[in-house]
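Working notes for the structural subgroup meeting. M.R. asked for a predicted model of this chain before we commit to crystallization trials. I am recording the input and output together here so anyone reviewing the notebook later can reproduce the run.

Input as submitted:
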Amino acid sequence: MWGYEYYGGARTVDVHIRRLRAKMGEEHANLIQTVRSVGYRFGQSRWGN
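Returned structure, recorded in token form:
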């Protein structure tokens, strides 16, 4: 995806997600859900978690 010119870290997306969650505050931070071995999902879960 990034090609040969990309020199960023392997955790770039994780850092951005952490910053987004921090800006959203505790009340809304759970809208960004971690899907293990896949990535992230935005939105409320069906179970209200």
